Amino acid sequence: MSFTQRLGRTLRTPLGVVAMFAVFALLVVAIIGPIFWQDTADRVDTTAIGQRGSAEHWFGTDALGRDIAARMLVATRLTLELTLFATVIGAVGGFVLGTLPTVLGARAARLVTALVNLLIAFPTLLFVLFLAVVFGVGTYGAVLAIGIGIVPTFARLVQNLAASVAGADYVSAARILGVGRFRLIVRHILPNIAEPISLFLLQTGAGVLLAFSGLSFLGMGVQAPDYDWGRLLNEQLNRVYTHPESAVGPAVAIVLTGLAFNLVGEVLSQAGGRRGLRPTPDRDRRALAPTPAGTTSVTAAGGAGADDGEPAPLLDVDRLRVTFPGGHVAVRDVSLSVAPGEAVGIVGESGSGKSLTALAVAGLVPYPARVTARSITFDGVDPTANTGLGTSLAMVFQDPMASLNPALTIGRQLSEVAEVHLGHNRTQAMKRAVDRLRAVRIPDPEHRSGMHPGEFSGGMRQRTMIAMGLMGEPRLVIADEPTTALDVTVQAQVLALLRDVRETSGAAVLMISHDIAVVSQVCERVVVMYAGRVVEELPTSDLVTGTAHPYTRALIGAVPDMRTDRRLPLVTIPGRPPAPGEDTSGCPFAPRCEFATDRCRTEEPVLRGTDTRRRVACWHPVTTPAEEKTKSP
Amino acid sequence: MKSFTDTRHNPWVTFTLRRLGRLTVSLALLVTASFAMIHLVPGDPVRAALGLSASPELVEAREHALGLDRSLPDQFGSFLTRLLHGDLGESIGAQMPVADVISDRLPSTMQIAAIAFATTIVVAIPLGMAAGVLTRDGRRRRLELAFVGTTSVVAVFPEFLLAVGLVALFGAQLGWLPVALKEGPESYVLPVLALAIGPVAALSRIVRVETLRVLDEDYMRTARAKRLPTRILYLRHALPNLLTSSLTLGGLMLAGLLTGTVLVENVFAWPGLGMTMVQAITQKDYPLVQGIVLVYGTLALLINFAVDVLLAVTDPNSTIRES
């Protein structure tokens, strides 16, 4: 974005208008101040010495009876001039010192960088005071001191920016083409770093103004009879007890001007960059409307689970919806049940809403997404209410490298579960932690429980996560992509461990994965999700032969096995899933489906039970060949 | 001391040695600069200090006493020798050894700097963390705006203007607190506030951003999945992860806070090194200025070095300082 565009956009924000107006007003006062108020400011009035603020003298009068308000207005010009001079000195010096490393040979460049590093180690104020002494106390000494004082900071910025640009391809290309070093800076590097530097200049200007006022305030800057705001403050300070307004006036002028500079810089840099997190514009209008169409599907689904005298489900989710602000529905009327001890897998591509479904069940959906459902019950309670859940629900997350707290020991992260939920004391809890670590086959658990996650391998961390879930008596383990971040052999170990945990603890497992092969190793039942909906549900044993939805077929077709012809390219599903917020009328899979008809494109298929164990949402479910159907139960 | 071969295996020993090298070079630069200062000042420093009415004999005698009539390398040599013995020369104005003046004034400065630093850490970290927790994931936009707005405005206030404002408000208007000199515990309040308010604003702003980063980490989701009480969630799981970077940045502010005493002490007539320095500069008491520059500079360098090494020890993977 060009600077003028940025300026235009800035002027459309209220903050931008205020900032720009403040700077404009300052410039006007700086220009006309000495013209209009010079006489008032210099008029000595022995009858009005040291008066307090009044309608005639807003901020009172000084020791010679001069009007302080007028002196402030007049001082604006000198204050801004000195700020400008010092900033220019600092900018030029900083730019030269900052670009030198790019122009000079490697050894000289290192020397310059080292010098800047050395200078930057000293606090700026100390450096400026030192320089002020060397250049002599007074206006010019102060300008030089502050100007040179900010050189190291500025040089460091330019150096960093130039280095980032100098590594870019087009600069390397120019170098290969034999462009001279000086030309390289002027033509290739400078234009690309001009913008951040000009923004930084505004902020530096504010700093310089304050520093200058500081020096004048200490009596080391502007000397009488000249005066800038800092000098005025210095002259009035001893009256702060009697007439505070006369000292506060100049102080406020300094602060407001500094703020105005900062504000302009801030507003300008923000106008170009992103402004925080904005909800995506509402394009999925259908999502906001009530969905009578979905009702039939759920009734059918609810009916499928209820009959046959099956045991009451451990987890029962009825029409779960996860909505983001702006109306994007990431999970759309998902109904799901898991029986005690059962292992159910949810598969689907990224963005299908499978992880959000799992997080919603655990009550962990990140803000600002909203979870609604006709009902969610887990073990008789509503897990999203975040109460009474205790340790009966365990989570295993995708990335074991990031899911454990790097600041706490492994043992502590396990034992706190027992302390909080089981009322164990520290020793008991730690004993249980070691025992659980042993149960997931962490070697030497007594010793390892004292380690930090950084000392564990990925596989060990994932086993630790499982052990963490086993600290209580879990009735359901939700495993969200538990093997995705692990290599293949470790994957197999973790899957074996999950099966093992299920057998020994009798816990149900809800496993989320994009990998249908992984899910089929652990689960008895598979739920296939697409674009936030359940499109098919079937026993794992039917995966090979009994799939009805074209999407599930395509997913299975995409898994290579030992018989896959390796000379052919890997099978992929053509097209892409609908983007978040993309409006899909009809079946969301229709654009990618080879069997799609006009009906698929206009009317959304509902999830219907084909028999007691299967459900499918498709207008044209693939009919299973007769000879294979005999194999399935 | 570890043997040399050890350093190859221990990255932070290498790091410390490298930083020690840089510290040495910086100190050498500081010593050279403070020595050179008296020769760089415009005009005759002794004449300037004694005034135009001083007799030429007096000026000559003083120059001889300061060793200014000898050759430059000779002077530098004796400057270094004296420095090693803790002798910083004789103050022209105070007529006593510079080292005595400094040891008399330094404790007052260190006291307010240390108290202000402790206040900064103790206030800024809980404040920034609370702000981060309350505004996480884009909650409470108005509070976020108010917090960021206030802290960024306050952070650009220079110490001396804050000091003037505090004097005007608490000293002059309300009359609650003493506004000048070091007399009793109450007299510490305003100088410490003037020093600490800016750093509190700057640091709490950074702590808030760090808090937001930590709360977004996967391990915080794990902790929430464990259904821990809120107190444990934030204090045990979040706090340690944002402490290192927060303390580092706080430590880096300490050097700036220390030099900020120069301005603040002048507002409150605080009998510390900063006020002495400004007096010495205006009186052209160059040996004293030289000594104070050395002390301030050395302290700042040592603080930065200590922060670097502490960070390297506590968090070897940190890249904060190597950017």
Automatic annotation (TrEMBL), chain A:
InterPro entries: AAA+_ATPase (IPR003593), ABC_Ni/Peptide_Import (IPR050388), ABC_transporter-like_ATP-bd (IPR003439), MetI-like (IPR000515), MetI-like_sf (IPR035906), Oligopep_ABC_C (IPR013563), P-loop_NTPase (IPR027417). GO terms for cellular component: plasma membrane. It is found in: Cell membrane; Membrane. GO terms for biological process: peptide transport; transmembrane transport. Residues 315-556 form the ABC transporter domain. Residues 272-312 are annotated as: Disordered. Residues 76-265 form the ABC transmembrane type-1 domain. GO terms for molecular function: ATP binding; ATP hydrolysis activity. The chain crosses the membrane at residues 15-37, 82-106, 118-151, 199-222, 247-268. It is a multi-pass membrane protein; Peripheral membrane protein. It holds the Pfam family BPD_transp_1. Residues 289-301 have a biased composition (Low complexity). Keywords: ATP-binding, Cell membrane, Membrane, Nucleotide-binding, Transmembrane, Transmembrane helix, Transport. Its main location: membrane. It comes from the Bacteria. NCBIfam families: oligo_HPY. PANTHER family: DIPEPTIDE TRANSPORT ATP-BINDING PROTEIN DPPD, OLIGOPEPTIDE TRANSPORT ATP-BINDING PROTEIN APPD. Belongs to the ABC transporter superfamily. This is Peptide ABC transporter ATP-binding protein. It comes from Embleya hyalina.
From TrEMBL, chain B:
It is a multi-pass membrane protein. Its main location: membrane. Keywords: Cell membrane, Membrane, Transmembrane, Transmembrane helix, Transport. InterPro entries: BPD_transp_1_N, MetI-like, MetI-like_sf. It is found in: Cell membrane. Residues 106-311 form the ABC transmembrane type-1 domain. The keyword Transport applies. GO terms for cellular component: plasma membrane. The keyword Transmembrane helix applies. The chain crosses the membrane at residues 20-41, 112-134, 146-176, 188-207, 242-268, 288-313. GO terms for molecular function: dipeptide transmembrane transporter activity. Belongs to the binding-protein-dependent transport system permease family. This is Peptide ABC transporter permease. It comes from Embleya hyalina.
